Amino acid sequence: MDSLLDFSGKSALITGAASGFGRSLAYALGERGAKLVLADYNADGLQETVAELEGKGVEVASLVGNVAEEAHAQALVELAVERFGKLDMAVNNAGIAPALGPMVHLDADTLDHQFSVNAKGVALGMKHQMRAMCAQKDGAILNVSSMAGLGGTPMGSSYGAAKHAVIGLTKTAAVEVGSYNVRVNAICPFFTATPMVDNPQLNPKGDIADLNKNLARGCPMKRIARVEEIVDVMVMMLSPANTYMNGIAVPVDGGMSAM
Ligand SMILES: NC(=O)c1ccc[n+]([C@@H]2O[C@H](COP(=O)([O-])OP(=O)(O)OC[C@H]3O[C@@H](n4cnc5c(N)ncnc54)[C@H](O)[C@@H]3O)[C@@H](O)[C@H]2O)c1
Question: How many angstroms separate the alpha carbon of residue 95 from the centre of ligand 1?
């Protein structure tokens, strides 16, 4: 296999692996030889991902838990080191979207919940991942931010703020641990057809195709992304041959940020 895509013998921790990007990334890395530590608070969805991978002969460990709890973040890293001897890659992907609404109606609970999962979850995850990676003087962390982390997020201010925080954390970590040969980057996808977005509940009055068309209206490519279009870039960013990219937030957005 081309070294760019060969993850044989590498271990990867992925949060939010019961669905969407996390599940597809687990399949993509497993197919390319990685051993996986998968996590989610959705136990049934996580078990489905694990069963599919084990059916293909991929080595998998898994843990059900909430990324906002530090004990879970620490246990995940310990599980990776115990099962696979080291932690080569970590993807802080678990996240939630808020109910849409203007900032003048923003409530404190929504803000707390967004920051708790989407920002604190990433920060605490990174804390323990970086400790293990700095000790082994090698590693790559990929945080899943969003286009909402790069610009204004009308009707989603709490989400946009938490996703901006993810980029701040990414840059700080990259500067702090770069000298240990640990790279920390973020990916910023535009709307993508995962269950978070391709969700009839978001558009109870219309059909999902209308909703997706509306979401894509301002995008130069006039469509939202397919899951694999984002996951393929995640694989490239995590590639063992990608050794000097550090501290960057990469938009994968069909040209939105060129507007
Ligand atoms: N789909 C999009 O358009 C889009 C765009 C940009 C960024 N993102 C980000 O991508 C990431 C993955 O989202 P997705 O689109 O695959 O959605 P998804 O809903 O399909 O998957 C998210 C996963 O995270 C898990 N999760 C949520 N909160 C958790 C918690 N507290 N602890 C543990 N697990 C938790 C869910 O159970 C789910 O399995 C999120 O961070 C999201 O904000 C999504």
Answer: 4
